[in-house]
Specification:
- This protein starts with 95 loop residues before the first helix and ends with a helix.
- 59% of the residues lie in helices and 0% in strands.
- Among the domains are: 214 residues, no CATH class; 125 residues, no CATH class.
- The longest helix is centred in the last third of the chain and has 43 residues.
- By secondary structure, it is an all-alpha fold.
- The relative contact order is 0.05.
Length: 639
């Protein structure tokens, strides 16, 4: 019997995530467990999944056909044909075309075991169709007696497992899958009463749609010209076919059927998330049905990542749910913006903040938990570009939590800076800017900006606050505060006072950063010119400078211009510091002019710093251009 459950060897490609599961065993299938001499259904406990032993397989003519090598006695494809109104359901499961194919294969040439040819692939797929229909027939005929259909369930599972190897030759096998309408059959199986069948289908589809498998060229297809393109084309065609028959909704719907208290259930959830990740990777538009108002997927992910049901070293699904949430909310697909809005409307923002609050006073225990924390932060940051999420973040005391994280100076500190950056950006972030200053956030902000020690007892500097990415977020925060805080308001005056205190030490740090970043940008420009040679143009140079840190330089000079205009003492100090480096306000003007000219220009990379994929609304882009214009005019007047 163990041979029935023996999986064929998998192709070399493997999915991104690995699930450590126990060795497959007959007892692992719920469909073959007994609670006694009688079936569970006879005791009123069965809810659709048959449970029975396999010790004494019935030889009754109404029982399963067994595991004979032929589909029917004598190889007659018409053997199971019956005169009934239900046709395929109670018949042999083969339509006229499939019967013709089967008869042709019976006379075909023999092939080596495991060799994939059109004939062997069609034979395997037709065997699956036979197994599906036989199982349906017996389940319908003997709904209260699992012993009558248990063997057909084994045959069905065996037929599914045998198809795993089709992923090794997508260009050959996937078109045949579509020709024989296999996606429709697999979609039906995702609603099967036995969750073992659901899991087997999910694992099969996850393997077929593994994006990493498309990069493998160590198979027979690799020798053909254009093999890679054929593999990709065939895989995407299969994805389209699966989406058309509703596999996305069926897979999501099956998540609630799986019991994570059991090993099989945990593995089923893991592989279901893996299948959905593969679909999103291959076709990002799959995010649209996943985030539709009628889909429970968003709620499931938030609820699952918030539920610490098992010890961290065993509960991979909690971490996977966070990664999936971060992924699906970051995709540029229709419905994603609406999905982000649902985070606010359905109180999911509060849930995410509660999860993150666990890292206020402690660091994650390992690499997996660190990645989990970062994924939750990323999901929140991506969604904070939606005004409704900003409002929910403010009302849920998200600003307070981030400020507390800044003070505690744990690993979550730099992630809190990034989150505040996203939260305070734009016109919808004005109220959050005011709240940040009200909560005395300026002190911790400038502490990080100055690169001060992460711990008073430690001599080591807070290195994570001085990385290029984190410095950019700090500068963006200052930019948002200077843009949004009302003129002559107490919060703005408190911000400006920070640049004056302690003999302009924050101004010194700002100009020091400017020199460092300007050096990197100029180096990047020279390297671009050297690489491109005579073909280089202004766009290439501009993009090269962006890679070298131009966005940070633009932010530095934006802040510099604001504080020059707000305070004469600061302005004179900046002019003096620039002169020491053979620089002047003219250099600041040049950077700001380039910044202004590239905002909203669809033909070039936008010069809007950070944001990670967020698009600046037209009105905000126009406002930023106007502000830059006024700053440039002022600097010209005092240069």
């Amino acid at each position: 019997m163990d041979d029935i459950f023996k999986l064929p060897a998998l192709p070399k490609n493997a999915s991104k995530h690995k699930l450590e599961a126990p060795v497959m065993d007959v007892s692992s299938y719920k469909s073959v467990k007994l609670d006694g001499e009688t079936s569970a259904s006879s005791n009123g406990q069965d809810k659709g999944k048959g449970r029975a032993t396999i010790e004494d397989a019935s030889d009754d003519e109404d029982g399963p056909a067994g595991n004979s090598e032929d589909f029917a006695p004598g190889g007659d494809a018409d053997y199971f044909e019956e005169e009934d109104e239900d046709g395929r359901f109670f018949g042999g499961g083969l339509n006229a075309v499939q019967k013709q194919v089967l008869n042709m294969m019976e006379g075909g040439e023999a092939t080596e075991p495991g060799e994939l040819t059109p004939v062997t692939v069609r034979r395997q797929l037709l065997a699956l169709e036979k197994a599906i229909d036989e199982n349906r027939r017996l389940r319908t005929k003997f709904p209260t007696d699992p012993t009558k259909f248990v063997d057909s369930e084994f045959t069905l599972l065996e037929a599914l497992h045998a198809l795993l190897l089709l992923s090794s030759a997508p260009a050959l096998t996937y078109p045949i899958l579509l020709d024989l309408s296999t996606p429709e059959s697999l979609g039906d199986l995702l609603s099967h009463e036995n969750t073992d069948v659901f899991i087997a289908v999910v694992e099969l589809l996850e393997e077929w749609l593994d994006p990493e498998g498309l990069d493998d060229e160590d198979d027979d297809e690799g020798a053909e010209e254009g093999a890679q393109e054929k593999k990709v084309e065939a895989t995407k065609a299969l994805v389209d076919g699966l989406v058309t028959v509703g596999v996305v909704d069926l897979a999501v719907g099956g998540l609630d059927r799986l019991n994570e208290e059991e090993e099989e259930g945990r593995g089923g959830v893991f592989h279901t998330l893996g299948l959905l990740e593969n679909l999103l990777t291959l076709t990002p538009t799959v995010a649209t049905p996943l985030l539709a108002p009628t889909s429970p997927f968003l709620k499931y992910l938030v609820t699952r990542l918030a539920a610490d049901k098992l010890p961290a070293d065993r509960d991979q699904n909690r971490y996977y749910a966070a990664e999936m949430l971060s992924l699906v909310l970051s995709l540029p697909a229709d419905g994603v913006e609406e999905g982000r809005k649902r985070l606010a409307d359905e109180s999911h923002v509060d849930t995410l903040l509660k999860v993150l609050s666990a890292y206020r006073r402690r660091d994650p225990s390992g690499a997996d938990e660190t990645e989990f924390m970062e994924n939750v932060f990323d999901a929140l940051c991506t969604s904070l570009h939606t005004p409704a999420v900003k409002t929910a973040f403010l009302e849920g005391e998200g600003i307070e939590l981030m400020c507390l994280m800044l003070k505690e100076k744990k690993l979550s500190r730099t992630r809190a800076i990034k989150t505040l950056d996203h939260a305070l950006q734009g016109q919808s972030g004005i109220a959050l800017c005011e709240k940040f200053v009200e909560l005395l956030g300026l002190k911790t902000l400038f502490s990080a900006f100055m690169g001060k020690s992460a711990n008073k007892k430690s001599k080591a500097s807070f290195s994570t606050a001085t990385t290029h990415e984190d410095t950019e977020h700090l500068l963006s925060l200052l930019s948002s505060l200077l843009t949004s805080l009302s003129s002559d308001s107490p919060p703005r005056l408190r911000l400006l006072a920070k640049f004056v205190e302690n003999d302009y030490e924050k101004v010194d740090r700002l100009i020091e950063l400017r020199e460092e970043v300007e050096t990197r940008v100029e180096k990047a420009a020279r390297e671009t010119v050297a690489e491109e040679g005579e073909d280089v143009d202004e766009v290439d140079i501009y993009l090269g400078k962006l890679e070298g840190g131009l966005a940070s330089l633009q932010l530095i000079d934006y802040v510099t211009a604001w504080i020059c205009m707000e305070d004469d003492g600061v302005r004179d100090h900046i002019i003096m510091l620039l002169a020491r480096k053979d620089r002047s306000l003219s250099d600041v003007i040049r950077v700001l002019a380039e910044y202004r000219d590239n905002i909203g220009d669809a033909s070039e990379e936008p010069a809007v710093p950070v944001g990670e994929g967020a698009e600046m609304p037209v009105d905000e882009g126009t406002e930023k251009k106007e502000i830059l214009g006024h700053l440039i005019e002022y600097l010209k007047s005092v240069d």
